[in-house]
Amino acid sequence: MKRIFGFVLASVLLSVPALAASNSQTVKFPGALQVGSAVLPAGDYKVTYTGTGADAKVTIEKKGVPTLTVPAKVVEQKHDHVGVSTNAQGDKEILQTIFLSNVSLVL
Questions:
Q1: If you ran DSSP here, which 8-state letter would residue 80 be given?
Q2: Which of 100, 102, 107 is nearest to 33 (CA)?
């Protein structure tokens, strides 16, 4: 019985990182983008989301840049590319949506 429990526990613990990895991808920001009150410089960012529907949180990370977590809405849809959608307001580009392989993250 202890062996079966140990096997089940090991399987669950090993599957958790695999599930978390499916909720993150690297996204290239083509220029400086404003997200809330923060301005993120151009570059490659690790984007991770948790939650579903309108109750999601998106974390945007890049070495040397403070990590940013913002609320978002997760919309299930497949994309041929990973990228972003922005809205120009004056001289600022406001990040609106992040497109990952299987979802859109609407900020």
A1: S
A2: 107
Task: Give the span between the Cα atoms of 15 and 68, in whole angstroms.
Answer: 26
What span, in angstroms and rounded, lies between the C-alpha atoms of 4 and 85? 48
Q: How many residues does the chain have?
A: 107
How many CB atoms are located within 10 Å of the residue 45 CB? 24
User: What's the pTM value of the predicted model, to 2 decimals?
Assistant: 0.79
**Rounded alpha-carbon distances, angstroms, from residue 75 to 15, 25, 45, 52:** 24, 16, 20, 8
Q: Kindly state the tokens that stand for 55.
A: 């109750």
**pLDDT tens digits along 29-58:** 999 999 999 999 999 999 999 999 999 999
